[in-house]
Amino acid sequence: MSKKSDNKIKAEENSAKDKLEDAIDEAIEEVEESESSKEDAEDNSDFGLSETELLKEEIQKEKDKFLRLFAEFENYKRRTSKERLELFKTANQEVMTAMLPVLDDFDRALNEIRKTEDKNLLQGVELINNKFRETLKNKGLEPMNVEEGETFDADIHEAITQIPAPSEDLKGKIVDVVERGYKLGERIIRYPKVVTGK
């Protein structure tokens, strides 16, 4: 976890503690006020409120305050736990982003090794490549499958250039994929770089 997120969580916890302490202080003040209002209860009997009715009202007010404070604290706990889960899911995003050029190099190396006749070398590099990709996949990294002929979508593709379409059906569509895109969980950490037809 980064220091910034730790500091943010600590600040929110301190804020919740401060609110809780303030609410407790207010409750103590109200209890003290209710004791002084007992003396005034005799005066209120002229208005038709007995001492027990006044105490019941005070208890109801305190109960309402407690329930509101408890609900607020539960919301705070739920929000912070959700933020922590999100942080854990994307905590390794920097490492994954740093590994993407290595994956690209593996793809290039495999393409070149396939041109040679050394099948043992090809098999060894493929084993390492598969193991590396499987490890990253277990940590949440998934390649985005983009193929030629798909419709270009600016929300999930990054167009680096536009060329005349080789055929009429490729106009406005993806002609070539220059660099593969990747997702970490649901978040896109690198958009696929594509060439579109015009």
TrEMBL record:
Coiled coil: none
Gene3D superfamilies: 3.90.20.20, Head domain of nucleotide exchange factor GrpE
Residue ranges, annotated region (Disordered): 1-53
Keyword field contains Cytoplasm: yes
Main localization category: cytoplasm
Keywords per UniProt: Chaperone, Cytoplasm, Stress response
InterPro entries: GrpE (IPR000740), GrpE_CC (IPR013805), GrpE_head (IPR009012)
SUPFAM superfamilies: Coiled-coil domain of nucleotide exchange factor GrpE (SSF58014), Head domain of nucleotide exchange factor GrpE (SSF51064)
Bias (Acidic residues) ranges: 23-45
Localisation per UniProt entry: Cytoplasm
Compositional bias of kind Basic and acidic residues: 1-22
Family from the record: Belongs to the GrpE family.
Purpose: Participates actively in the response to hyperosmotic and heat shock by preventing the aggregation of stress-denatured proteins, in association with DnaK and GrpE. It is the nucleotide exchange factor for DnaK and may function as a thermosensor. Unfolded proteins bind initially to DnaJ; upon interaction with the DnaJ-bound protein, DnaK hydrolyzes its bound ATP, resulting in the formation of a stable complex. GrpE releases ADP from DnaK; ATP binding to DnaK triggers the release of the substrate protein, thus completing the reaction cycle.
Assembly behavior: Homodimer.
Protein name: Protein GrpE
Highest classification ranks of the organism: Bacteria, Pseudomonadati, Bacteroidota, Flavobacteriia, Flavobacteriales
